[in-house]
User: Which sequence fits this backbone?
């Protein structure tokens, strides 16, 4: 390959004018910069359009038959937060699952009925009828029972109900013999002179529950967040403090901290195996604990799985495999780990000159939070920007069934005349305007710009850190030859000259990510298909694009380092970085990646410590926290949030070290090719960094002649640098 591509694979020649990151540079990838700015302006326009059309109340409050929101503050229905069904048994119709609407009148009420009652009996008792009116429409004065029922102003009966996800459902129960009851009664009067079994209500409740099942889980999760957000925030702050403390200690005690980190990771995983084993043994005598996960099926309440022995056995096996893999890697890579620890020490020395780099992840996190918040809010407003659509619902055959209607004049319309038992009810949110027709396109644009902006923010952080650490490396006399504020200087250069290059690299990555999202969507839609060829092809595509995404991230990362140093455009920098790494492939494999592994163990340690603390706190396993921990539907919600958040926080802080190591390594490879360590062509690397990477002589002897081990820097040069 060296002979086929001599222009790309030849080492860099000595350049006496090169003194590190180029300061006199020009703008790169201007076309992509202009395109990015235009797309951002379009993104802002989409947000403004969505905010003007959307209404988030549609996903918060239940909606009655008129499309009004139950319990909405500042409206006449503010004191009526619950939705009441006139005849829940009509929800047993199969059309409920297709139309997502129960063909019965629905109205907002202050509280659910708590007693059996029929309109016929309540009408004869003044007190009962006063209570009954709470579940009726207005305009009952002077009407008989027959007129009230024919006009659909009141339900024919009331059954004891309980609120569930802001809706009133019959209070169903079950006796010891398996008999279904409602309000402790197995029979009830349906208000039409018929005595019916309580089991007749089951189908209606079941279908209505299926319709709102997703919202039910989402609302419970939302309620858990409202109850535990304060403790989640405390957990994330603890994770941030531990990460910051670890990074600061790593700066001064790199060697000791790495070994402490390795030992603690092994101990934490070992403790996890011990705890899971104790739980597995304790469930041996518990009834029903031997049920398999396959027989149990999917449960929205994840705590159910913790009462199954097979769950803890799976945890034991997974943790044991992770423990064995880590120990084997530590044994077989012990020599490389010693070199990697020395490389981390050198990175700590570099960070000591650029201490502000430790806090730069907070800036990146703030920008990413803005991007995520803008995307989420825009997505909610776009999804709720439809208009209420009303359709004809009926019990008997009707030519106008499921046709769009207007509730204001439906009682006098021809539809009502031809179908006397029909009702004009709220069906769903939709629309026929141009805006509504292209709503799915706007949602796609929102997702794509989210990926692009998030990748741009990440790329900006990588280039900024790379420029700061490159200025450290290429300073012959440190810190005299370094900028006064390396981070701010690098950030300014990146935004002023290389916004286009950042946009170009992040655009390529975003296109691949959006293709992966589309493949996942297609896979979800084709889950029911039995075509094995299609499944195999889709699986291959998903695997290929996953690998491609990882490769592009690797190329982008090193391309940004080259852009930060030389100020060239993205494609040229990506090409130079790629071939430079190819000329030093063995060093990349055995040193850079081992360092990444050690930093990953650090993230794992922080996540493990915070995750264990969160588990014992939110699950109430520790008596000291029983009265302090909030009461939750799913205690795994805050635990999972804290674990994921802790990993992101730890990744943000450790990414500074990872970027520092990558930058120093790439600069080291450049330094080897440009210079030879003589007084005429001195190395910019420190003597300790040269000693670190020259310990790998046995491996380097197997490389190409162009990668041969460099001469030791002479004593005069070392004294000059010092």
Assistant:
């Amino acid at each position: 390959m060296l002979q086929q591509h001599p222009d790309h694979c030849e080492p860099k020649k000595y350049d006496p004018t090169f003194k590190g990151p180029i300061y006199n540079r020009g703008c790169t990838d201007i076309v992509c910069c202009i395109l990015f700015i235009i797309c951002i302006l379009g993104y802002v326009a989409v947000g403004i359009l969505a905010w003007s059309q959307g209404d988030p109340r549609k996903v918060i409050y239940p909606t009655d038959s008129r499309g009004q929101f139950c319990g909405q503050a500042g409206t006449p229905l503010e004191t009526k937060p619950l939705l009441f069904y006139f005849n829940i048994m009509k929800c047993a119709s199969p059309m409920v699952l297709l139309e997502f609407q129960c063909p019965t009148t629905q109205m907002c009420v202050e509280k659910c009925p708590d007693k059996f009652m029929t309109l016929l009996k309540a009408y004869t008792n003044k007190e009962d009828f006063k209570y009954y009116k709470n579940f009726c429409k207005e305009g009952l004065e002077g009407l008989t029972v027959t007129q009230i029922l024919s006009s659909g102003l009141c339900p024919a009966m009331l059954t004891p109900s309980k609120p569930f996800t802001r809706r009133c459902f019959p209070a169903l129960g079950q006796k010891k013999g398996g008999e279904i009851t409602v309000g402790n009664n197995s029979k009830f009067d349906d208000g039409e002179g018929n005595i019916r079994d309580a089991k007749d209500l089951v189908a209606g409740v079941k279908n209505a529950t299926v319709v709102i099942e997703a919202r039910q889980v989402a609302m419970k999760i939302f309620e858990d967040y409202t109850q535990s957000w304060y403790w989640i925030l405390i957990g994330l702050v603890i994770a941030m403090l531990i990460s910051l403390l670890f990074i600061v200690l790593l700066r001064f005690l790199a060697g000791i901290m790495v070994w402490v980190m390795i030992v603690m990771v092994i101990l934490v995983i070992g403790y996890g195996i011990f705890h899971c084993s104790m739980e597995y043994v304790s469930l041996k005598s518990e009834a029903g604990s031997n049920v398999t996960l396959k027989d149990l099926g999917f449960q929205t309440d994840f705590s159910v799985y913790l009462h199954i022995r097979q769950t803890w056995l799976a945890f034991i096996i997974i943790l044991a495999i992770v423990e064995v893999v880590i120990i084997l890697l530590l044994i077989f890579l012990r020599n490389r780990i010693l070199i990697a620890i020395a490389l981390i020490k050198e990175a700590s020395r570099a960070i000591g000159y650029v201490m502000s780099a430790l806090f730069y992840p907070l800036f990146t996190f703030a920008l990413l939070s803005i991007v995520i918040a803008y995307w989420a809010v825009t997505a909610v407003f776009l999804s709720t920007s439809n208009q209420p659509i009303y359709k004809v619902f009926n019990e008997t055959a009707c030519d106008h069934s499921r046709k769009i209607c207007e509730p204001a004049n439906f009682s006098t319309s021809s539809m009502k005349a031809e179908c006397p038992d029909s009702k004009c009810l709220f069906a769903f949110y939709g629309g026929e305007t141009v805006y509504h027709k292209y709503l799915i396109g706007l949602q796609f644009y929102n997702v794509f710009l989210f990926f692009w902006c998030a990748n741009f923010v990440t790329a900006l952080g990588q280039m900024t850190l790379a420029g700061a650490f490159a200025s450290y490396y290429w300073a012959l006399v440190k810190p005299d030859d370094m900028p006064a504020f390396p981070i701010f200087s690098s950030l300014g250069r990146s935004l002023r000259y290389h916004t286009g290059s950042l946009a170009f690299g992040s655009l390529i990555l975003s296109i691949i990510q959006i293709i992966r999202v589309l493949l996942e969507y297609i896979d979800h839609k084709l889950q029911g298909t039995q075509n094995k060829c299609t499944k195999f092809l889709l699986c291959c595509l998903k695997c290929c694009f996953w690998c491609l995404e990882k490769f592009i991230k690797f190329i982008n990362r090193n391309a940004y380092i080259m852009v930060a140093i030389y100020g060239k455009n993205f494609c040229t920098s990506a090409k130079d970085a790629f071939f430079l790494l190819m000329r030093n492939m063995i060093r990349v494999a055995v040193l850079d990646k081992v360092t990444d592994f050690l930093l990953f163990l650090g993230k794992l340690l922080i996540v493990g410590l915070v995750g264990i603390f969160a588990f014992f706190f939110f699950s109430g396993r520790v008596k000291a926290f029983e009265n302090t921990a909030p009461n939750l539907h799913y205690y795994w919600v805050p635990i999972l949030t804290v674990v994921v958040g802790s990993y992101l926080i730890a990744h943000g802080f450790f990414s500074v070290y990872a970027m520092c190591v990558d930058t120093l390594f790439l600069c080291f490879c450049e330094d080897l090719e440009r210079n030879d360590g003589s007084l005429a062509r001195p190395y910019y690397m420190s003597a300790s960094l040269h000693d670190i990477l020259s310990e790998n002589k046995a491996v380097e002897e197997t490389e190409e002649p162009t990668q041969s081990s460099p001469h030791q820097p002479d004593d005069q040069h070392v004294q000059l640098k010092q």
